[in-house]
């Protein structure tokens, strides 16, 4: 097998010697960057030379990571831009929902005392902590295989967010210096996130909590530390004790889907007065009536609708995605209240490429709409911009991209 691998590598080098030379040159530049740019920052942050050298011994670039700017691979990067635009239903597969619900219930029973204590201390419900834990690392059961220093080093050197990842690289070195992990024992996701809660290194330092009371914070092996750290993170980001994350609702056809977004909030009572009702037919809880609520339609008019609270946006602070926050809230409800699927299913929509959606977004920007950036994704600002444009065109707003809209706005 080793011989076949060596032959394959040799063949690749012979077929594309220029690319191989370019990669070798890039590797030399990376090693120089580590010594001349990263080391002075690490030293200023309290990292010893001995620690630094051990951390980067044998570390090379990892050029198969996403979002890298590599001069010798422009063609490959162009292909990556043709990724398919993801539809929300893919985030809520039956297998993923059932696994997270089943294991979440098991661990809720196992950690009932801890979860109760954490909710009293932080106001964050245990079901929410479990749902995040499940989504991030399969409750610590998903293997985290990447070398964190290789990932963060590569992204600090070559990614579109180089400054951010360089800062995280320094934070990772500080964790090693403090004895939290050995250099090769610091494993991460492809994005550099660590441990069971998938914290970036700087967040390990800020929010790592000792949940089991043994005097140390271990987010790789300790379930109690993992749950306590997630609770601290959400509490410090503004979780409002006593409020829910949100409710699945029915939005009357007369109410524009372009009213979505965290900057268009009004009281739950006011939304109810406009005809927004809970999908299960029950009244909104009395204690929620005066609190702010925000319309959220993750698939426009082609799927379920929600009235979410400020806590929904705290969940988005953990992972900047509407679907992530929705998944966490939904799984938490399934774990705690035995709730089933959303009452309204995900409708069928056009298949598009992210590049097509990005072109549509640029068209909307040219007309003065704030879409939140032409990134090929359909966040709330893009969805409501589509709705406002449709209304201006005399169309019934759907607040979701389609082939027809792309053609008109490209």
Indicate the low-confidence ranges by residue numbers: 1-15, 75-80
Quickly count the helices: 17
Mean pLDDT: 92
Number of strands: 8
- Strand fraction equals 5-15%
Amount of helix? 40-55%
Major beta sheet, specifics? 5 strands, antiparallel
What is the H/E order?
A: HHHHHHHEHHEHHEEHEEEEHHHHH
What would you call the structural class?
alpha+beta
What is the distance, rounded to the nearest whole angstrom, between the alpha carbons of the first and last residues?
Answer: 50 Å
Shape: globular
Radius of gyration: 24 Å
* Strand ordering within the main sheet: 4-6-8-3-5
Topology, element by element:
Elements: H1 2-15, H2 17-44, H3 49-55, H4 74-80, H5 94-110, H6 112-122, H7 126-137, E1 146-147, H8 148-158, H9 162-177, E2 187-188, H10 201-207, H11 223-236, E3 246-250, E4 266-267, H12 268-273, E5 277-278, E6 292-296, E7 298-301, E8 305-308, H13 310-318, H14 322-337, H15 354-366, H16 380-392, H17 403-409
Antiparallel strand pairs: 1-2, 3-5, 3-8, 4-6, 6-8
Describe the structure concisely:
Residues 1-22 form the signal peptide. It holds the Pfam family PG_binding_1. With 410 residues, this protein is an alpha+beta fold.
Commentary on this structure:
- The structure is a single chain.
- The chain has 410 residues and is of the alpha+beta class.
- It has a domain at 354-409.
- 51% of the residues lie in helices and 6% in strands.
- The protein is built from 17 helices and eight strands.
- It has helices spanning 2-15, 17-44, 49-55, 74-80, 94-110, 112-122, 126-137, 148-158, 162-177, 201-207, 223-236, 268-273, 310-318, 322-337, 354-366, 380-392, 403-409, and strands at residues 146-147, 187-188, 246-250, 266-267, 277-278, 292-296, 298-301, 305-308.
- Strands 4-6-8-3-5 form a five-stranded antiparallel beta sheet. It has a two-stranded antiparallel ribbon with strand order 1-2.
- Mean pLDDT is 92; it is low at 1-15 and 75-80.
- Residues 1-22 form the signal peptide.
């Amino acid at each position: 097998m080793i011989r076949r691998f060596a032959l394959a590598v040799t063949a690749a080098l012979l077929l594309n010697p220029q690319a191989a030379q370019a990669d070798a040159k890039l590797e030399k530049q990376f090693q120089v960057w580590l010594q001349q740019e990263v080391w002075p920052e690490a030293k200023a942050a309290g990292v010893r030379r001995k620690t630094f050298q051990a951390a980067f011994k044998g570390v090379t670039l990892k050029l198969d990571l996403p979002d890298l700017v590599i001069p010798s691979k422009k063609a490959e990067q162009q292909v990556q831009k043709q990724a398919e635009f993801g539809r929300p239903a893919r985030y809520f597969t039956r297998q993923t929902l059932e696994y997270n619900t089943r294991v979440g219930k098991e661990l809720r029973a196992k950690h009932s005392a801890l979860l109760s204590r954490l909710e009293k201390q932080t106001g964050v419900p245990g079901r929410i902590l479990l749902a995040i834990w499940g989504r991030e690392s399969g409750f610590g059961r998903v293997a985290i295989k990447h070398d964190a220093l290789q990932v963060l080093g590569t992204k600090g050197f070559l990614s579109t967010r180089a400054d951010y990842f360089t800062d995280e690289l320094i934070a990772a070195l500080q964790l090693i210096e403090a004895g939290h992990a050995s250099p090769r024992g610091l494993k991460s996701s492809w994005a550099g996130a660590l441990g069971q809660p998938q914290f970036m290194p700087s967040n390990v330092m800020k929010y790592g909590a000792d949940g089991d009371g043994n005097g140390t914070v271990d987010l790789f092996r300790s379930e109690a530390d993992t749950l306590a750290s997630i609770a601290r993170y959400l509490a410090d980001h503004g979780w409002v004790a006593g409020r829910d994350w949100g409710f699945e609702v029915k939005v009357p056809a007369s109410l524009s889907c372009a009213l979505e977004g965290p900057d268009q909030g009004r009281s739950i009572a006011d939304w109810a007065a406009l005809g927004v009702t809970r999908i299960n037919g029950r009244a909104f809880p009395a204690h929620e009536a005066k609190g702010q609520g925000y319309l959220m339609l993750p698939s426009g008019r082609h799927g379920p609708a929600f009235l979410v609270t400020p806590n929904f946006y705290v969940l988005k602070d953990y992972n900047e995605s509407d679907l992530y926050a929705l998944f966490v809230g939904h799984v938490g409800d399934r774990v705690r209240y035995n709730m089933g699927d959303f009452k309204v299913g995900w409708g069928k929509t056009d298949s598009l490429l992210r590049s097509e959606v990005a072109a549509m977004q640029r068209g909307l920007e040219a007309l003065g709409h704030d879409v939140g950036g032409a990134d090929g994704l359909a966040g709330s600002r893009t969805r409501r911009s589509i709705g406002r444009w449709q209304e201006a065109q005399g169309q019934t707003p759907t607040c979701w991209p389609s082939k027809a809209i792309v053609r008109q706005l490209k």
